[in-house]
Write a structure and sequence with these properties.
Layout (H helix, E strand, L loop, with lengths): L1 H30 L2 H8 L17 H11 L5 E7 L6 E5 L11 E4 L13 H13 L3 H26 L7 H5 L7 H27 L5 H11 L12 H5 L11 H11 L5 E5 L8 E6 L10 E5 L6 E5 L6 H7 L1 H6 L4 H13 L1 H25 L13 E6 L4 H15 L4 E5 L5 H6 L2 E7 L11 H5 L12 E8 L8 H12 L3 E2 L4 E4 L3 H14 L14 E10 L9 E7 L13 E5 L4 H11 L6 E4 L2 E4 H6 L1 E2 L11 H6 L2 E2 L3 E4 L9 E6 L10 H9 L5 E7 L13 E6 L3 H13 L5 E7 L2 H4 L3 H9 L5 E6 L9 H7 L1 H9 L3 E6 L4 H13 L1 H9 L3 E5 L1
Parallel strand pairs: 8-9, 8-10, 10-11, 11-12, 11-13, 24-25, 24-27, 25-26, 27-28
Antiparallel strand pairs: 1-2, 1-4, 2-3, 4-5, 5-6, 6-7, 14-15, 14-23, 15-22, 16-21, 16-23, 17-18, 19-20
Length: 848
């Protein structure tokens, strides 16, 4: 709750103050090197030629020449420098009744001539007015002051919100992944730049308030133990002015300067200030040649009559609070920390527009996500006959998890299932314990942390033991692969569910940055849960047009459904890229006979051109790639009207059995049939309807959860049926890399007919690239034998391989084989060991 409060405050202040802070930041950056820029623009004015044999005039002589050049004007201050090329500066008192501090002009220190006003000075004065008051005087001062206070709160709240799980790991603070896109890249830029600039922003903000509010400035003086501006200083000017009426004649500037030079043998820059009223002391402010910054000033206060030293205030011996307060401008500009500080503060100032832009874009994206959630949120039809609806619980940071929860609910509800959607943090132990089927959509914040509103749930309920053995669940984990603990909280949540006895309906689906392929995989699970193969994709894959190059029956004579080896040739052989474990997404189509029959029933000409799914094509092509509506919806008046009611067929997924080096995608596809004997949409298209040479819509989906180990550790591969396809790709990869410690356990019906890729396996076994091979052909003997039985028979070898660091990969049927293998492994190795291996990526499954 506290974190959410800070988040709401952070974005509210950021949106409110962003434009003002952007203006203040840019103008502050322009002012960072004002003196250097003006010096470069004004040779002969701010810097002067140095005569070959002349020395600068003493201040008294210089003042006399200036006075002669400007009769009637009273000099209030004269600044001289030990640098030979630096011009002197004179300040005149303002004319009677005129506001301000008077005019300052540059003076030739050798001739005493008043020089022209410097170029660019008025521009910098306007920039300063923008910086401090938005050029609006008093109203602008209050606006900038409020924005400055907001900057302090933004820096502190941003630091709190950004605090990582491992604060001592610099990568957790400073890593920007420029491979990201959209919101994730914006967040990286916003957060990392804020981390780098947090100290400058705090210093700028806390010092900037000095010029915005009198009460703040007074409080700083009180904290530093210094009299407030305008007050009396013991022995200072006002006290001196209030002494009796008898005042001796004041000393001249020449005498005062001699006293100063006696007291201060070395100086860099010195300013002689004449008293404003008779009886007030002279003051000489100066900076030493090795001063740490240009505001490290010392002050010598001299009696105007005798030249005696009344006070000598040295910057070096000031208490820390007074030293900081007298250096307030140097702190604000970064000069207090040297040249590096000025550069850092300038860059931080220039970054303020970046924060304004990224902050607004993140805010607008957040609004768009909320609108998407509202659009996805719809009343669900009541299902009174369903006593236990499927619970869909979500936990997210930005609204994506909630939107996906409602989309999942709409999909299942549309398929006739009863569902209930709720935030995870609202679930209590009693409701969790009573749930029989649940789908959880859980995002990870940062490097493995729960979303803000799940922190209490994670600290409370997830530390309890709950009776959840009656629950079957599916989990969609949202994350960002650039973090070390990718989908870390989703994994933690799944581990907790398993420890409570809940059983997975299918393997966890990990989503990297809203990857559309992973979300389609989740939709596939929803379709199987609803027992519907025709549920449309939320977002269709962006297919390429591959070619069906080869198709051959692989299990002739089998008692099971026909199984075909399929080879797909790419459109560009030089640009094929996938890894062992990846998935081919196929865009299926209806056969020509089915399309012709449909069009005949609808009374439509298939050659008519229509617009469908953003494409211009014939009506026959649109029908071929669409879910065919029932007869009641076919009576459209025109071909376009019919096309408008067609939805694209959902994609189908198949494990890739080859490597890019093979030049083609190899698939092993079993021809499936429904209760009416009709072949499945995807399998029927690939194994029967599509002619060899036909175009096949293909997209390769990265399946990082089933990628090969990155080292040469032992690899145990377990699979049945067409699951051998994914295992074959891994064996090919291991053979190619010369990694022979491979153990294959494979099961099917009959060895004579169903030993898929038997020649490859025999060759690898003969070449010692398969160290151990266990086969389970269930119908070759009276007693049915399955892969889990072979696994149990090899228990001792299994434990030895695991102790040697082996990884276990399972590919095949979700129903039957995969749960049985999982239970056997847990029994033989221990549930804790299997859970640890899964967490370390050593136990991976690709089951369907």
């Amino acid at each position: 709750m506290l974190r959410n409060l800070w988040f709401q405050l952070h974005w509210l202040l950021g949106i409110a103050a962003s434009v003002v802070l952007a203006i203040v930041g840019v103008t502050g950056a322009l002012l960072s090197f004002e003196d250097d820029i003006l010096r470069a623009l004004n040779p002969g004015i701010i810097t002067v030629p140095v005569p070959a044999a002349a020395a600068p005039l003493e201040p008294a002589s210089l003042a006399a020449r200036i006075q002669a050049s400007a009769p009637g004007r009273r000099i209030t201050a004269l600044t001289v420098s030990r640098a030979p090329a630096d011009a002197a500066r004179v300040t005149f008192a303002p004319n009677a009744g005129a506001p301000g501090r008077g005019e300052t002009r540059y003076v030739d220190p050798y001739a005493g001539a008043i020089l022209d006003p410097p170029r660019g000075l008025e521009s910098f004065r306007f920039i300063m007015r923008l910086h401090r008051w938005l050029a609006l005087d008093d109203p602008g001062r209050h606006i900038v002051g409020a924005a400055t206070m907001a900057l302090v709160v933004l820096a502190l709240s941003g630091l709190y919100l950004r605090w990582p799980r491992r604060p001592l790991d610099w990568r957790a603070w400073l890593r920007v992944d420029f491979k990201r896109r959209g919101r994730n890249l914006l967040w990286d830029l916003h957060a990392v730049a804020g981390t780098v600039a947090v100290v400058p922003y705090l210093v700028m903000g806390l010092t900037g308030l000095y010029w915005s509010y009198d009460w703040y400035r007074g409080a700083l003086f009180d904290l530093a133990g210094m009299p407030r501006p305008g007050g009396d200083r013991p022995g200072g000017p006002l006290n001196a002015a209030r002494r009796g009426d008898e005042r001796p004649a004041p000393l001249g500037a020449d005498a005062i300067w001699k006293v100063f030079r006696r007291e201060v043998p070395a100086y860099g820059v010195a300013t002689l200030r004449w008293p404003a009223r008779p009886g007030q002391p002279y003051q000489v402010g100066y900076r030493l040649p090795d001063a740490p910054h240009d505001r490290a000033n010392n002050t010598l206060v001299l009696d105007p009559a005798t030249g005696a030293v009344r006070e000598h205030r040295l910057y070096a011996v000031l208490p820390l609070g007074q030293k900081l307060l007298t250096s307030i401008f140097a702190l604000h500009s970064g000069g207090f920390f040297g040249l590096a500080g000025v550069v850092l503060f300038m860059l931080a100032s220039l970054a303020m527009p970046l924060f304004a832009v990224t902050g607004w874009m993140l805010y607008l994206d957040r609004r768009a996500r909320k609108r998407a959630v509202r659009a996805a949120t719809r009343p669900l039809p009541a299902e009174p006959a369903a006593p236990s609806p499927i619970l869909i619980g979500f936990a997210g940071q930005s609204g994506t998890a909630e939107r996906l929860a409602w989309q999942s609910a709409a999909t299942l509800s549309g398929a006739g299932l009863a569902v209930a959607v709720t935030p995870l943090w609202r679930l209590d132990p009693s409701r969790l314990g009573a749930t029989t089927r649940a789908l959880f959509i859980v995002s990870t914040f940062g490097d493995g942390q729960p979303p803000d509103r799940m922190r209490g749930f994670a600290r409370g309920i997830m530390r309890q033991s709950l009776p959840m053995s009656g629950m079957s669940f599916g989990l969609l984990a949202l994350g960002d692969r650039s973090y070390q603990r990718f989908c870390g909280f989703g994994r933690d949540f799944e581990s907790w569910l398993r420890r409570q006895g809940a059983r997975p309906l299918f393997d966890r689906v990990d989503v990297d940055n809203s990857d559309a392929g992973a979300l389609r995989h989740w939709q596939g699970h929803l379709g199987r849960l609803a027992d519907r193969a025709d549920l449309p994709d939320w977002e269709a894959p962006r297919y390429q047009d591959w070619r069906l190059a080869e198709r051959r029956l692989g299990n002739d004579g089998s008692v099971g459904w026909p199984c075909f080896h399929i080879e797909l040739a790419p459109p560009d052989p030089g640009r094929v890229d996938w890894q062992a474990g990846d998935i081919a997404e196929i865009g299926p189509a209806h056969g020509a006979a089915r399309v012709a029959s449909f069009l005949a029933e609808a009374g439509m000409d298939g050659t008519v051109t229509v617009t469908w799914d953003g494409l211009t094509c014939t009506l026959a092509d649109a029908v071929a790639r669409s879910i065919l509506p029932p007869a009641a919806r076919r009576q459209a008046g025109t071909a376009q009207a019919l096309a408008d009611c067609l939805q694209p067929l959902p994609h189908r997924e198949y494990s890739i059995a080859s490597l890019p080096q093979d030049g083609r995608i190899h698939l092993l596809v079993r021809q499936m049939h429904d209760a009416q004997g009709r072949s499945g949409i995807g399998s029927g298209w690939l194994t029967r309807e599509a002619p060899v040479g036909a175009g096949i819509a293909v997209r390769v989906r990265r399946n990082a959860g089933f990628h090969a180990p990155g080292d040469d550790r032992p690899l145990l591969l377990i699979g049945n049926g067409t699951g051998i396809a994914g295992l074959r790709a891994h064996l090919k990869d291991r053979v190619l890399k010369g990694r022979p410690r491979n153990w294959l356990i494979f099961g099917e019906r009959n060895r004579a007919h169903d030993f898929h890729y038997a020649d490859d396996i025999a060759a690898w076994r003969a070449a010692s690239m398969i160290e151990r091979l266990d086969l389970a052909f269930s119908r070759d003997q009276k007693a049915r034998i399955h892969v889990q039985d072979r696994l149990r028979d090899a228990a001792a070898a299994l434990r030895a391989w695991v102790e040697d660091g082996a990884a276990i990969y399972v590919c095949g049927s979700l129903e039957g084989m995969a749960p049985a293998v999982d239970a056997t492994l847990a029994d033989l190795l221990g549930a804790a060991v299997l859970e640890r291996m899964a967490a370390e990526g050593l136990y991976r499954r690709d089951v369907y």
